[in-house]
Amino acid sequence: MHLLAEARAGAVAVAPMLLGVVPFGLVAGAVPVAEGLGAWAAIGLSGIVFAGAAQLAAAEVLAEGGSAAVAVLAAWVVNLRLVLYSASLAPYLGHERLRRRLGAAYLLTDQAYALSVIRWSAGTDPESRLPYYLGAGTMLWLSWQMATIIGVLVGRAVPQDVPLDFAVPLVFLVLLVPLLITLPATAAAAIGGTSAVIAAEVGAGPLSILVGAAFGVAAGVLSDLSSDRAGRPPDQPTS
Amino acid sequence: MTRLWFAIVLAGAGTYAMRASFLAFAHRLANVPPATTRVLRQIPPAVLAAIVLPALVRPEGELDLLQPRLLAGIVATFVAWRTGNVGLTLAAGMLILIATETL
Q1: For each successive 10 residues of chain B (103 residues), what is the average pLDDT?
Q2: A117 with A239: CB under 8 angstroms?
Q3: Fewest CB atoms less than 10 Å from the CB: which of A120, A127, A172, B8?
Q4: Are residues B44 and B85 in the same domain?
Q5: Dist. CA B14–CA B8, nearest whole Å
Q6: Counting beta carbons within 10 angstroms of the beta carbon of residue B12, is it exposed (0 to 12), middle (13 to 18) or buried (19 or more)?
Q7: Do the interacting molecules here have an ipTM over 0.90?
């Protein structure tokens, strides 16, 4: 009973975040359809990849005629942050059986991570941790899948001359802007964006995302290292 | 068709592997080396900007700064900064783009 209450607490905690998740899910459903990849591609991406930014990055590459390899790489690079989340949550779930941890991994998202790490680091009974995470994760999963399906239906109904593809950069802007509060992140974004544009200008096509990512990360790391050397404390990792 | 599903399944498999990476070894207690953290933290801003900026400054496949998508993007950046809301940012960007394109 106590565990069920924890699951419910997780589901309730994630509810305000759905305000941002649902429109994003609608876009993840509508864009692949509008770009000609088909309804099943949109539903498959949401069910199998279940990570919005990566889904849209892969769909963008595929719609532009890029190879499967470039699309997969783009999705993976966008999702590398999940390794960090996995590492950050792992110490809290060491007492759980492997099978349950592997099941929980599928539901790992920005939102489930942020809620759980905040609650668990404040000190909770270990047995109540996984139910809380699963409550939040399941609620988010259901909302994401439903938003995708509605997005697919909306995407079909939207007239051809509505520029639905523009929803992709708009959704990414909402993720990008709040990151630009530290110097390394701003350097990574400025150099990443500029080098992606230059790469595209010289004909790199869909690969330009990966080129931009590589240069941007390098710039961010350099900026981070130099601010260390200047004696400022490095900004702390999320864990 | 096969290219599409090959990409979706492989993207999903890799994503799951990243999610499960440290959780699978939780009993041994995991700790990410600080150097790895430093690199991983730079990835989101770099990748997001690499997707956003080309979409705003070269929508037709070549650099063009005098077109509605850049204007709509600048306004949307402002809305995203002030509100942090996906719905409002989408609405503002889309409305400005559609309005300037039909004018």
Answers
A1: 92 97 78 76 88 93 93 96 91 94 82
A2: yes
A3: A127
A4: yes
A5: 10
A6: buried
A7: no
Total Cβ atoms within 10 A of residue A160 = 7
The one-letter amino acid code at B73 reads: G
Q: How confident is the model at residue A101 (pLDDT cuts 50, 70, 90)?
A: very high
Range of the structural domain that residue A37 is part of? 2-157
Is residue B44 within 8 A of residue A180, CB to CB? The reply is no
Chain A residue with minimum CA distance to B42 = A217
My answer on whether B102 and B65 are in the same domain is yes
Assess contact for A46 and A25: CB atoms under 8 A.
yes
- The pair of structure tokens assigned to B72 is 């709509």
- The C-alpha atoms of residue B9 and residue B15 are separated, in whole angstroms, by 10
Average pLDDT over every residue of A12-20: 86
pLDDT digits (tens, 9 = 90+) for A199-239: 999 988 878 888 999 999 999 999 999 988 776 555 554 44
Name which of A115, A85, A186 is nearest B37 in CA terms. A85
Given the structure tokens 């809301």, which residue do they identify? B85
Contact B94, A170 (CB under 8 A): yes
Q: Residue B16: list chain A partners with CB under 8 A.
A: 105-106
Q: Give Cα A59 to chain centroid, integer Å.
A: 14
Please name the member of A167, A200, A239 whose beta carbon is closest to the beta carbon of B54: A200
Both A101 and A208 in a single domain? no
What is the reported pTM? 0.81
Q: Which amino acid is at A44?
A: G
B48 and B95 fall within a common domain: yes
Contact predicate B44/A81, CB 8 Å: yes
Q: Do A72 and B86 touch (CB under 8 A)?
A: no
Provide the domain count of chain B.
Answer: 2
User: DSSP state, A207?
Assistant: G
Instruction: Tell whether B96 lies on the interface with A, counting CB pairs under 8 A.
Output: no
